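Subgroup meeting minutes
Present: P.N., E.W., G.H.
Scribe: E.W.

1. P.N. recapped why we're keeping a running log of single-chain structure predictions: easier to compare across weeks, and new members can see raw inputs and outputs side by side.
2. G.H. added today's entry (123 aa).
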Amino acid sequence: QVQLAESGGGLVQAGGSLSLSCAASGSALRNYFMGWFRQAPGKEREFVAAITWSGSMKSYDDSVKGRFTISRDNAKNMVNLQMNKMKPEDTAVYYCAAASGWPITSDRFDRYWGQGTQVTVSS
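Output recorded in log:
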């Protein structure tokens, strides 16, 4: 079982930066692939980024590629999402996710979710 807690959400102007953190707890955390999803008003939840335990593999949605960076600090059981050059369309509730398989978008694997943190980008 994995418990996830996001933090760092808030309001930022377009072109600005914001950093999100996800604190993970539970057993065998190194067996999980971590990532971020987001859900904008009126839209379905969508994939944002993912990372393996070692950080050797990272995956990004095309909409954030080159702007967002996902990282992982296993010693602190933390996952970070650094968001730069933010756009109004980045406005959404961001959810931390842990999955037992790769890719984390697959429904074949167990997946755990945080409660979400609101990110609002003003124009």
